[in-house]
Specification:
Length: 344
């Protein structure tokens, strides 16, 4: 086994420490594997990449199966490292990497009588592919492959090959020990690990659904003759690019550290239906903004009809005068709009 360690230049990754705010007081690592095939029963792991904090600084660590026989050794090293962490970040790892490693550990135990402790169940897995998938529409991504997302974020990686293309390169390396072949396979995984650090920019978008912002201003405007409610947000984390998305007349427009949410204002009479009282209701006249679901349990929600799924919040002091209510409302609007869930 060969271990290659490279210190990360933090200045290249604006959001490299964003996970510390999302998972406070948690020890975080990232990983990715390279294999000689898609089936763990007929192939093996030849490289495990890890992003780790060493003495408070991020490092890329590659565990290279340089002789074709070191798979048990690199998996053991990885598992021992994993045991010292709380959160494991991966890309499609929930579907592939984690299951592959687990199966290879079972096979190694069965065929080689080498038992490697499994620490996967002791950490919280965070799959970046699953995290990004709901934002595909809002970000205008044609697919959610890692290289596609990296290009969206403005990353132009040096590695030009995919994992499948490099299998033969690795197998050839085992025979000829070519330094060029070794460089190709190491570069690919190294760039995957660096790419994960760039992908942390996506957490700046995900953080919006968790209220990582403050209310900068509230107001109204008229768009195409429609009166709209405006929430101006001051974001805790800078967005990687400008994002605009809208649905059902509600829009999100974010750029840098500010964002605007606009929602149509409905005036007239709506009905408040008492919980557990069937169709018992009370009419209320005023101005309302769409809530889309019962997102605020502390203030009344109104409907046009009893069976309507679309609910409204009255624009009154209990709503407009409460920063907690406004942040909860804005967080839910960010989630629904950016994940294309804003449907009646």
């Amino acid at each position: 086994m060969q271990i290659i360690t490279e210190k990360v230049n933090d200045s290249l990754f604006p959001h490299i420490n964003i996970l510390d705010s999302i998972y406070p007081d948690k020890r975080i690592m990232m990983f990715d594997i390279e294999t000689t095939g898609l089936s763990p029963d007929r192939s093996f792991i030849y490289l495990i990449g890890m992003n780790l904090k060493i003495d408070g600084e991020w490092n890329i660590v590659l565990l290279f199966n340089d002789d074709g026989k070191s798979e048990p050794e690199i998996i053991r090293y990885f598992q021992e490292t994993l045991s010292n962490h709380d959160v494991l970040v991966e890309f499609n790892g929930d579907s592939f990497d984690i299951n592959f490693v687990k199966r290879r550990m079972h096979i190694i135990s069965t065929k080689l009588d080498i038992t490697i402790p499994d620490h996967f169940d002791e950490v919280k897995p965070v799959d970046l592919m699953k995290l990004i998938r709901p934002y595909k529409f809002a970000l205008g991504l044609p697919n959610i492959k890692q290289k596609t997302i990296e290009r969206y974020l403005g990353v132009d990686r040096e590695d030009k090959y995919n994992g499948g293309q490099l299998i033969d390169v690795y197998l050839s390396f085992l025979t000829d020990k070519s330094e060029y072949s070794k460089k190709l396979v190491l570069q690919h995984n190294r760039d995957d690990m660096e790419g994960m650090l760039y992908l942390l920019d996506i957490f700046a978008i995900e953080a919006l659904s968790s209220g990582h912002f403050s209310i900068k201003n509230i107001g109204t405007t008229t768009d195409a003759g429609i009166l709209k409610f405006i929430l101006e947000l001051q974001l805790d984390n800078k967005l990687p690019r400008r994002i605009f998305s809208s649905s059902n007349g509600i829009s999100f427009d974010g750029d840098g550290t500010t964002a605007l949410i606009k929602a149509p204002i409905t005036s007239g009479t709506l009905n408040y239906y008492y919980p557990g009282a069937g169709k018992a209701f009370e009419e209320k006249e005023g101005y309302f903004v769409p809530a889309l679901n019962a997102i605020l349990t502390t203030i009344p929600q109104y409907k046009k009809e009893y069976k309507d799924k679309l609910t409204y919040i009255e624009m009154c002091d209990s709503f407009l005068g409460s920063e907690e209510c406004l942040i909860s409302y804005a967080s839910e609007m960010c989630r629904l709009i950016l994940k294309n869930l804003c449907k009646k």
